[in-house]
Write a structure and sequence with these properties.
globular; disordered N terminus; 549 residues; 5% helix; Maltoporin, Chain A; 22-stranded antiparallel β-barrel; mainly beta; single chain
């Protein structure tokens, strides 16, 4: 019992550390993007939805369902352009080549080369090309994308070592420009390039009392126009088992240590250099039927000139088996200081022209939920969480000739409810549903600009005699409020209508190594808007062949 008293004291100290007043997190760089008078081939990244599909559980699984944490620094995930290519429901045993063509003069080419199964090495190379040419002269919504990726990994009795590298280039346009602005029309083109590299080592050991670690070094160079961001990060999770004592069992003591150095440069402006140090200790154990994880989320921030700014938040998660092997309830406390970056801004809304690099502080997040499993066919999760966020980013339209976006930050309280359900009819059919419901309360802003209050996704997959694989996706989003204008006393507002998007396709494997695919997006041909003044492409479809070798 005395150990429980010590642990309680430890958590009380963590709560008192959290009680420190949040510090000034503002580090704003506002930039009005300039462009050379050239019109390049374009890529519209987000205007059709890529649906984050619920993953129906495979039949006869035996794992326990782990609840998925809900991020609130960006309440709505970015919706990139529709995957005109559709990932097959079966796994390729080795390498493949995929080619296709669509109704918007859409060529698709993809290949994936890898070695056969090997217990010592794995390596591979992948390339993807996708382009549209819809001749929508009034929208300039077409895009071009190239993506190449390579990897190498080796396995031994001491651990796994791996290298990865990728390069992705997206060309797209501003196309929400004002029709009367001929200057804007000549400066629509934007190009995003992103190079990423990773080296990692995961140690392994058959001895339960030996300390292990998972260490990774990550680098990326991200560029859009004249704005360039470089990021160097290394993190290591060190962990080991702790001998049982008294009523505490299955103890694991761990700590994740991270170093992140980010540079940002635009035109002739002075470079912005930032350092983020993280230290997250954890103690995981089982007490009676409770599984407990307790510790701290610690971030120390340096921006090159100010003194170090520490941010410390407690972390607690407790799970309880309500009905053994059927239902589990969980709850806890979380929170963290988070980096805002050029990469995350553009990946969320690539029509942004003012880059506000104000960091985000999730002061506290309270969460509770229940997971359930019914036999080997169905599983579900329900979660409610409340977050208090400093400097939550909101996208608003500027009044420039492109109708581009900028970011304003505000204090936010967010209540979110998530429900997800998956059901499998043996291997013949699988269906998944996820829904998110939000309630926002901002300190200064009257509306959650460009954020929905409801979003839902449905995914269905079928397997007909291991030859025909139809699939169906539906994505829906509630209406949103939109603001145009930087002045807090003089701006206009609009309503973006609620919308839904239906996608469907079929994969037909008429030979063991040769299959036909057809994918159709936005079947209802609704020119809805995810971002104000940027209507999505209409109905689009692509079909082709996949050859496995």
């Amino acid at each position: 019992m005395r150990y429980l008293i010590l642990i309680s004291g430890f958590m009380f100290c963590g709560m008192s550390l959290f009680a420190q007043a949040r510090k000034d997190t503002t580090n704003s760089v506002k930039i009005i993007q300039t462009y050379k008078p050239t019109l390049i081939e374009a890529r519209k990244i987000e205007t059709l939805p890529v649906i984050e599909k619920p993953k129906p559980a495979a039949p006869n699984y035996t794992y326990n369902i782990e609840p998925k944490k809900v991020k609130t620094d960006k309440t709505v995930s970015n919706i990139p352009a529709a995957d005109l290519y559709k990932t097959e429901e079966f796994n390729y045993p080795s390498s493949f080549v995929k080619v296709g063509y669509g109704n918007m003069k859409t060529p698709l080419a993809e290949f994936y080369l890898n070695n056969k199964r090997d217990n010592k090495y794995s390596y591979g190379l992948q390339y993807r090309f996708l382009q549209t040419n819809s001749e929508l002269n009034k929208t300039f919504a077409d895009f071009t994308t190239h993506h190449v990726k390579g990897y190498l990994a080796s396995y031994s009795t001491t651990g796994e070592f791996g290298l990865e590298a990728s390069y992705k280039q997206n060309k797209f346009n501003y196309y929400g420009y004002k029709d009367t602005s001929k200057i804007a029309e000549k400066n629509l083109g934007r190009t995003i390039s992103n190079f990423e590299a990773k080296a990692y080592f995961n140690s392994v050991s058959d001895k339960s009392n030996k300390i292990k670690h998972r260490t990774a070094f990550n680098f990326y160079n991200y560029q859009i126009g004249k704005a360039i961001e470089n990021d160097y990060a290394i993190s290591s999770k060190i962990y080991g088992n702790v001998s049982d004592f008294n009523d505490l069992e299955n103890g694991i003591l761990s700590a994740t240590i991270g170093f992140d150095y980010t540079t940002f440069q635009h035109l002739n402006q002075k470079s912005l250099n930032r350092i983020f140090l993280t230290f997250d200790p954890r103690f995981d154990f089982k007490y009676d039927v409770l599984n407990v994880s307790a510790g701290l989320n610690t971030t120390v921030y340096f921006n090159g000139s100010d003194t170090a700014q520490p941010f410390i938040n407690p972390f607690i998660k407790v799970t309880y088996p309500l009905i053994e092997n059927i239902a589990t309830v969980y709850g806890g406390v979380d929170g963290r200081y988070k980096k805002q970056s050029l990469k995350s801004i553009i990946q969320t809304n690539q029509f942004t022209s003012n880059y506000n690099l104000t960091n985000i502080y999730e002061n506290i997040k309270l969460f509770a939920g229940i997971t359930a499993k019914v036999g080997s066919s169905a599983d579900a999760v329900f979660e409610i969480n409340y977050s208090d966020v400093t400097n939550m980013p909101l996208f608003i339209s500027t009044q420039d000739s492109f109708n581009s976006f900028t970011i304003i930050n505000d204090q936010a309280n967010i209540l979110k409810f998530t429900a997800a359900f998956n059901y499998s009819f043996s291997e013949i059919a699988r269906i998944g549903f996820t829904g998110n419901f939000y309630n926002y309360n901002f300190k200064t802003q009257p509306q959650p600009w460009q954020l929905p209050t409801i979003e839902a996704k449905v995914n269905m997959n079928f397997n007909i005699k291991n030859k025909v694989y139809p699939h169906f996706d539906l994505m829906a989003m509630s209406l949103q409020k939109q603001r145009t204008g930087l002045s807090e006393t003089n701006y206009s507002t609009n309503t973006i209508n609620a919308f839904y998007d239906i996608s469907a396709g079929i994969d037909f494997r008429f030979r063991p190594k040769l299959s036909l695919f057809v994918q159709a997006n936005n079947i209802m041909a609704t020119r809805y808007q995810r971002w104000y003044n940027y209507p999505v492409l209409g109905f689009n479809a692509i079909g082709g062949l996949t050859f496995i070798f």
